[in-house]
Amino acid sequence: MASTTRARLGEEVWKSRTDKINAELVTLTYGSVVAQLCKDLDGDYAEVNKQLDKMGYNIGLRLIEDFLAKSNMQQKCANFRDTADVISKVGFKMFLNIIPTIANWSSDNKQFSLLLDENPLADFVELPDDGKAQGELWYSNMLCGVIRGALEMVQMQVDVHFVSDILRGHDTTEMRITLIRYIDDEMPQDDE
Amino acid sequence: MVVYAVLILNKAGGLIYQRDFNPGLQKISANDYLIIAGTFHGVHAITSQISPTNDTGSSGLEVLESEHFVMRCFQTLTGIKFLIFAEPRQPNLDVVVRRVYELYADYVMKNPFYQIEMPIRSEGFDRHLAAYIKPQA
Amino acid sequence: MVVYSFFIFDRHCECIYIRQWLESTSTPAPAQPLSRPVTASSATTTATSTAEKPTSGNKLSMAEQAKLVFGVIFSLRNMVKKLCGPDDSFLCFRTGHYKLHYYETITSLRFVMLTDIRTENLKLSLHQIYVNLYVEYVVKNPLSPVEHAGGEGVNNEMFELGIDGFVRTIQ
Amino acid sequence: MNRDPSPFRPTSTASTATSPTPKYANLTASTNIRYSLTRKSIYDRHLNRTKTSELSKSAFAFLFGEMVQYAQKKVYGVQDLEKKLNLHGYAVGQRFLELLLWRDGRTAKRETRILGILQFISHQMYRAIFQKQADTLEKVRENEDEYMISDNDPIVNTYISVPKEMSQLNCGAFIAGIIEAVLDGHCFPAKVTAHTAPNDMWPGRTVFLIKFEPEVLEREALRVGS
């Protein structure tokens, strides 16, 4: 499935089949969630990353249904490259109204990166200057969990993590996505 | 367009939702519905195995017809099955099943008090489903 | 309209007749008819005397296919009966790739035909096969036994020709 | 209920930042926030850039739902859960207040009357955040210090079905927190709670009950008197 058709699908679903709300409400709500986590875990940023990923995973398990229902996708992706197109051009477009660029494909087509030149979750955000956050906190880590949860529901086990983030002073915000394996469907016990 | 009943099965074939909308099917105990759901789940998988054409990933049963009803089964890529029972020769069941899936995605998946794979008790889902199915009867 | 295969199951849930048409050729060149009958319910799949020719399209042997097909129609038939009461009967089901038509006589003889998905409901055709072919050439055939344990006596000459002719007409 | 002024409380300990590698630029000596040379920091981007940008309602619904579930794991009972949601809303409300007043620029009027601030909330503020005005603004007749703002279908509750055993819960407590932050920000300290008040047209209708602190009433009386 050419990536242009995926782009058109993403555009069409965003225009005609998505209820829209004020982006800043999501930005600030996400901010309050991260802040609450930082407070609850009193600054243990590694733990905050893990918790954000877990919350994202819980969302991903549910979000995939909304994605499939609204995008009306019937067939599974032909290959992992097609999956990358669908995530970026349909998934991100439909939910966050951004289209991250796909880059750095590994030679075995099992790894790629998503470059978020725009990240609505991180608007107005400056990490705490306690000398730790900028080295340890991945602010938008919930996105990694969402992708991992969603793909697991369509039988793809993946690892997703941030490698760079503008909030940390890097030049780009980059997520690395690696296909671990395709999970085969559980067969019902053959009771015939 | 008369819809008799809607059933939803989770990935393991467990019945997570059953509701009658119009008379047309027999009055069946909840337990019997559980058995029907379980058997259908097994049958659905086998129907794709016995496909004579050699397409890979052939889909399982999609439409079942009997003298008194037609049943549309829509299985999502995530394994959830939606079964819509309606009067025979019902034209747009595909549209109906897609709409039910959207309502499920909205009022069940987005309800924080719903636990995945468990029976659905979301008042919002019931209300919107009835609002969608009832007037057409 | 393409016919893929045709099964008959008796009231003992045994497969007494299997007929398969190669999917690729448009005219139904007779496939390797089953020379040794296969019993659907028999646990061990009796190897047919002729070389086990895998049916076109999938790896299931004819015996396994018959067993699975029976499992499916038996469950669906009971499901329909439970859902709608005894006077309702299961007609057919369709997947994305094929359609299975079903006809059951009062004597619990079950006729099953698999076709492509565009075929209209074949209940009448199966009924005609039962009346004009099965009753005429099998039931009334003095040589064939009363019960067809293991499909004995069903695949006689006249019946085979009748089936071929019939399939060509509804092609 | 300590309302922490800003969630990012800079720790007082002297920061032992690793010596910033050359490619980072520090804005000022006092902070060790690193910014990449090429990328503009948030201070260079115009605040109105995302004024009209939109996201999908589903994204918010899933985020909010997960927030509710996370809060639910940490509390016992409906009141605590509503308090947590109120806190989240308060943090959001504080920021929205600053953002919106900044955006009003010179036209921003400092509200001095109760009715004025309530109208600001139910019209401009509500429209800016939820893209629609609040549906009604009423005064509670029986007691002087209570007012009500109602919303027929608050977006936080659209997809939420509260189970029977928690029937008292209204996740609109999040919006109540926003309203409370705006009121506090305008020196009209008050307690705001969300209550489900369905009518046949709107099963999800929610009423935000605003109960002002006594000093607000005294000030109001003085102002009306003079």
Automatic annotation (TrEMBL), chain A:
Predominant localisation class: endoplasmic reticulum
Q: What InterPro entries does this protein map onto?
A: Bet3, NO_sig/Golgi_transp_ligand-bd, TRAPP_component
Query: A GO CC term?
Result: TRAPP complex
**SUPFAM superfamilies cross-referenced by the UniProt entry:** Ligand-binding domain in the NO signalling and Golgi transport
Note the superkingdom of the native organism: Eukaryota
Transmembrane helix keyword on record: no
User: Which UniProt keywords are present, listed alphabetically?
Assistant: Endoplasmic reticulum, ER-Golgi transport, Golgi apparatus, Transport
State whether keyword Endoplasmic reticulum applies.
yes
A Gene Ontology biological process noted in the UniProt record is: Golgi vesicle transport
Q: Name one Pfam family in it.
A: TRAPP
Q: Where can this protein be found?
A: Endoplasmic reticulum; Golgi apparatus, cis-Golgi network
**UniProt similarity note:** Belongs to the TRAPP small subunits family. BET3 subfamily.
Descriptive protein name = Trafficking protein particle complex subunit BET3
Task: Name its species.
Answer: Orbilia ellipsospora
Gene of this entry:
BET3
From TrEMBL, chain B:
Q: What is its main location?
A: endoplasmic reticulum
Output the Gene Ontology cellular-component terms: endoplasmic reticulum; Golgi apparatus; TRAPP complex
* Transmembrane parts of this sequence: none
Kindly state which keywords UniProt assigns to this record, in alphabetical order.
Endoplasmic reticulum, ER-Golgi transport, Golgi apparatus, Transport
GO biological process annotation, one example: endoplasmic reticulum to Golgi vesicle-mediated transport
State the compartments where it is located.
Answer: Endoplasmic reticulum; Golgi apparatus, cis-Golgi network; Golgi apparatus
Summarize subunit and interaction data from the UniProt record for this chain: Part of the multisubunit transport protein particle (TRAPP) complex.
Q: Write out the similarity annotation.
A: Belongs to the TRAPP small subunits family. TRAPPC4 subfamily.
Name of the protein in its database record: Trafficking protein particle complex subunit
- Species: Orbilia ellipsospora
TrEMBL record, chain C:
Q: Which Pfam families match?
A: Sybindin (PF04099)
State any GO CC term: endoplasmic reticulum
Q: Which Gene3D superfamilies match?
A: 3.30.450.70
Q: What top-level branch of life does the organism fall under?
A: Eukaryota
Annotated region Disordered: the residues are 27-56
Could you mention a single GO BP entry for this protein? endoplasmic reticulum to Golgi vesicle-mediated transport
Per UniProt, subcellular location reads as: Endoplasmic reticulum; Golgi apparatus, cis-Golgi network
Q: Where is the composition biased (Low complexity)?
A: 39-51
Name the predominant localization.
endoplasmic reticulum
What keywords does the record list, in alphabetical order? Endoplasmic reticulum, ER-Golgi transport, Golgi apparatus, Transport
Q: How does it assemble?
A: Part of the multisubunit transport protein particle (TRAPP) complex.
The family this protein is said to belong to: Belongs to the TRAPP small subunits family. BET5 subfamily.
The protein depicted here goes by the name Trafficking protein particle complex subunit
TrEMBL record, chain D:
Q: Which InterPro entries match?
A: NO_sig/Golgi_transp_ligand-bd, TRAPP-I_su5, TRAPP_component
Q: Which Pfam families match?
A: TRAPP
Show the Gene3D superfamilies listed in the entry: Trafficking protein particle complex subunit 3
- Entries under SUPFAM superfamilies matching the protein: Ligand-binding domain in the NO signalling and Golgi transport
Q: Which spans does this entry mark as compositional bias, Low complexity? A: 9-22
Where can this protein be found?
Endoplasmic reticulum; Golgi apparatus, cis-Golgi network
Query: Which keywords label this protein?
Result: Endoplasmic reticulum, ER-Golgi transport, Golgi apparatus, Transport
Q: Does the keyword section mention Transport?
A: yes
Q: Which domain of life is it from?
A: Eukaryota
A single GO BP term for this record reads: endoplasmic reticulum to Golgi vesicle-mediated transport
Which parts of the sequence are annotated with region: Disordered?
Answer: 1-23
Gene Ontology cellular-component annotations: endoplasmic reticulum; TRAPPI protein complex; TRAPPII protein complex; TRAPPIII protein complex
Q: Does the keyword Endoplasmic reticulum apply?
A: yes
The family line of this record is: Belongs to the TRAPP small subunits family. BET3 subfamily.
Q: Which PANTHER family match?
A: 41-2 PROTEIN ANTIGEN-RELATED, TRAFFICKING PROTEIN PARTICLE COMPLEX SUBUNIT 5
Q: What does this protein do?
A: Plays a key role in the late stages of endoplasmic reticulum to Golgi traffic.
Subunit notes for this chain? Part of the multisubunit TRAPP (transport protein particle) complex.
Name this protein carries in UniProt = Trafficking protein particle complex subunit
UniProt organism field: Orbilia ellipsospora
- Source species taxonomy: Eukaryota, Fungi, Dikarya, Ascomycota, Pezizomycotina
